[in-house]
Design brief:
By secondary structure, the protein is α+β, with helices and mostly antiparallel strands. It contains 25 helices and 31 strands. The protein is elongated.
Length: about 775
């Protein structure tokens, strides 16, 4: 229970003072002092905390402590509808109903007068005391006046006058009620009224305390009073029943709930987990203020099943959430009812949208094949038909050429991300995802950063937009998480131009921290509008491509050397295209980058690069002697391999069934000299969907692994793994031992030691093990 009840508060205590007093033990979400209709405090209130742990700590700490001079008692508040609370209310109602309506009889006026006079005589100053009359005054005050004297004089005067009916009706009564001091005012008035109504000589009716006479008039009055009350209660019940039926109809139609009185610090994930106990939640939306970007304290919750929404409406209305009492109401459906039932295509699209936010979603660098072809053909200045055509002069198939083009584009994209301070390893080892950064994939070629920004700006503020030089995907950052979630739900699988957008939530801490003082920027590798000179790389040489091996590697740079200073030093050389200083993020100051002490310079031709290398090698820049050599770009991997190659052989999975051994040889042969390529087939001649590729050296195998691990061949993503032992081969016993360790537990291996172990394999594992065994048998037969 995250809500506490505090009793014994001072009457002058304010809400702000109570919040400040309890905020030392946690985050206070709600404070409510109970007051009477006239505004005075009832000296108790409620305090809500964000978590139950904070509430328990505050209860243990503040119970039986003091606020000023008032000792308070702190306990966990009861839930609305609690059995103990309901029983206590019934007990209070019963006591109130059983209490007598008549007031207790008054005390004698003489006794009050005597005590009051005695009090005045004792407390009066000595100068004002009548010392010679004190006893006389007290005796006079204690003397009881005789009421019969004035009462007996009036009938005598009335008897002397002539009697008349009018005089008889107004004559003073002779029942002695005026002299009876124990008679209450109400009873005295009742006697006087009955005497007047009786009139004439008719004696007044005497009411006796009997069941036959006293109960009849009371029952008649009770029936007259209870009849309107019963009708009113019946009308209230009918109205409540009608409202309940309307609420049930609304919830069963929409499956949505409207939740009010939420803490402003509550998130959509916390609210979703709070309602998940009643059923799967499809969507949770917390509206934000357009100006302050803060929560409005309300939310909409949509369930997959309307019956679960009805259960949540019954169970969560009045429940305590982070110290606040929730008010749950039915919400209408915003989506209009379709005129016709949804088609199979529409149902599949809705299912895809529902699964868009899950962890599994496409390849991390998925690109549209048509966009890749357009990018390469545009940048190389050749026709796309020539790139993908089947010319007789070229032996390479169009599928392999497209795969090689995609590999080139992926390498440029990875280089662009690395220069922006993005760690690509987080895309492969995703442990947690963030909601404020979105990867936009399957973009058509030619999409600008302004178009992407305008597409997402309809849902809120957009921070950074990064577009690699290939212009086939983008990274969008939205500072407000609620707006980013709304944009993700609305734009997932949305048609954009002649393509469909594929969205994926980026890993946590994917982008480096951005300086909040700087305005939002769009970083595009093609346009280069906001990219500084230190971020220039292959994307800057689209207009004048860098020749092969025409990039210089510059070492021993001063850490104070800026990209502008390096560009100024190489700018006068012939064929100079770009210069950059390699940087890394500063761990002490987020948003700042530090020089790594080396850089690169690109030239238009190899001869010009050789001339620049001779001139600049040994030159002094900012007090440091430069060491200039060729970078050998294209011979080394663009990024470090994830693991050292254990052998020269790799296993290629998810190979298209249409691919041939020639296609694999052409694709992998670009990255090194191949020793063998094997594509196992089934009995009827169809390929099995995997292959083995072996290189001559491990360095070439590592380079091919890092270059092709994100490549697609004929629409399938190639999955690369190392195969074989240290020498590139694996025996049958090694394969069996590897499979046994993977699918037999340690306890079973210890119990089955020396016996024949039973291996539990699924259909896929059996197929893979059989394929590996057959491939090994083929190797043995070839040998």
């Amino acid at each position: 229970m995250s809500r506490l009840i505090v009793k014994g508060l001072p009457s002058y205590l304010s809400d702000a003072r109570l919040r400040e007093h309890f905020s030392n033990k946690g985050h206070v979400t709600d404070v409510k002092l109970m007051r009477r209709p006239d505004g005075t405090s009832r000296r108790f209130g409620f305090v809500g905390f964000r978590t139950e742990e904070e509430a328990a700590a505050a209860c243990a700490y503040y119970d039986r402590t003091y606020i000023d001079t008032s000792r308070i008692s702190v306990a966990h508040a009861k839930r609305i509808g609690d059995d103990d609370l309901a029983a206590k209310k019934e007990h209070v109602r019963a006591r109130a109903k059983a209490a007598p309506e008549a007031k207790p009889p008054r005390t004698k006026a003489s006794e009050k007068s005597a005590s009051f006079e005695e009090f005045l005589s004792v407390m009066a100053p000595r100068t004002k005391r009548k010392t010679w009359q004190q006893n006389e005054d007290l005796d006079t005050a204690n003397t009881v006046a005789e009421p019969e004297a004035p009462q007996t004089k009036k009938p005598k005067r009335a008897a002397e006058a002539p009697a008349s009916p009018e005089a008889a009706s107004v004559a003073a009564p002779t029942d002695g009620a005026a002299a009876d001091e124990t008679l209450s005012d109400l009873e005295y008035m009742r006697r006087r009224m009955r005497h007047k109504v009786a009139g004439g000589d008719e004696p007044p009716k005497v009411f006796e305390q009997s069941d036959s006479e006293a109960s009849e008039p009371e029952d008649e009055d009770a029936d007259e009073n209870e009849a309107p009350d019963a009708e009113r209660r019946r009308a209230q019940l009918e109205e409540e029943q009608r409202r309940d039926e309307e609420n049930v109809d609304t919830i069963m139609e929409s499956g949505r709930l409207f939740v009010r009185n939420l803490p402003y610090s509550a998130t959509e994930d916390e609210l979703e987990s709070f309602f998940t106990s009643y059923g799967p939640v499809e969507q949770v939306h917390i509206p934000l203020d357009p100006q302050t970007k803060a929560s409005k304290g309300l939310a909409f919750v949509k369930f997959h099943d309307a019956a679960h929404a009805l259960l949540a409406f019954r169970g969560r209305d009045g429940a305590i959430f982070q110290g606040r009492l929730l008010h749950v109401l039915p919400a209408v459906s915003l989506a209009p009812k379709p005129a016709h039932p949804a088609t199979l295509k529409q149902k599949r699209l809705d299912a895809k949208k529902a699964q868009a936010g899950k962890d599994f979603n496409w390849s991390m660098l998925y690109m549209n094949s048509d966009a890749v072809a357009n990018s390469i053909s545009h940048r190389l200045g050749i026709d796309k038909a020539t790139l993908l055509g089947t010319d007789t002069d070229t032996q390479v198939s169009p599928a392999v050429r497209l795969a090689l083009a995609e590999t080139r584009v992926i390498q440029e994209t990875k280089q662009f991300f690395a220069e922006q301070g993005i760690e690509l390893d987080k895309l492969e080892r995703v442990t947690a995802r963030t909601d404020d950064t979105i990867l936009v994939k399957n973009l058509p070629y030619g999409t600008s950063g302004e178009e992407i920004r305008a597409l997402f700006a309809r849902f809120g503020d957009v921070g950074r937009v990064l577009i690699p030089p290939a212009n086939t995907l983008a990274v969008v950052e939205m500072p407000v998480v609620g707006e980013a979630r709304a944009a993700f739900r609305a734009l997932a699988y949305k048609r954009f131009r002649d393509s469909v957008l594929y969205l994926e939530k980026a890993p946590a801490s994917f982008l480096p921290p951005r300086d909040a003082s700087k305005p939002a920027e769009t970083i595009s590798g093609v346009q280069g509008k906001t990219v500084p000179d230190s971020s220039r790389s292959l994307r800057d040489v689209d207009a004048a491509p860098v020749a092969a091996d025409a990039t210089l590697y510059i070492k021993n740079l001063s850490f104070a050397t800026t990209p502008e200073r390096l560009t100024e030093a190489f700018h006068a050389l012939d064929g100079f295209l770009f210069a950059r200083v390699q940087t890394k993020p500063d761990p002490k100051q987020p948003g700042r980058r530090l020089s790594m002490g080396y850089g690169f310079a690109g030239f238009a031709s190899l001869a010009q690069a050789q001339e620049a290398q001779k001139k600049m090698d040994g030159d002094v820049l900012d007090g440091h002697t430069l060491s200039v050599s060729f970078a050998r770009r294209g011979h080394d991997a663009d990024d470090a391999p994830t693991e050292k190659a254990p052998s020269t052989k790799m296993l290629v999975k998810n190979v298209p069934f249409e691919a041939t051994k020639k296609d694999l040889r052409e694709l992998f042969g670009v990255h090194g000299q191949l020793k063998s390529v094997r594509l196992p087939k089934q009995v009827h001649g169809r390929t099995r969907g995997f292959a083995f590729v072996e290189f001559v050296s491990r360095r070439e195998a590592e380079h091919a692994m890092n270059a092709l691990r994100h490549t697609h061949l004929l629409g399938r993503h190639l999955v690369l793994e190392w195969a074989g032992g240290a020498d590139g081969t694996a025996s049958v016993d090694e394969l069996r031992d590897k499979t046994r360790k993977a699918y037999v537990s340690e306890a079973e291996r210890s119990t089955l030691m020396g016996q024949r172990a039973k291996i539990r394999l699924g259909a896929e594992q059996v197929a893979e093990a059989v394929a590996q065994q057959k491939a090994q048998d083929d190797d043995d037969s070839d040998t």
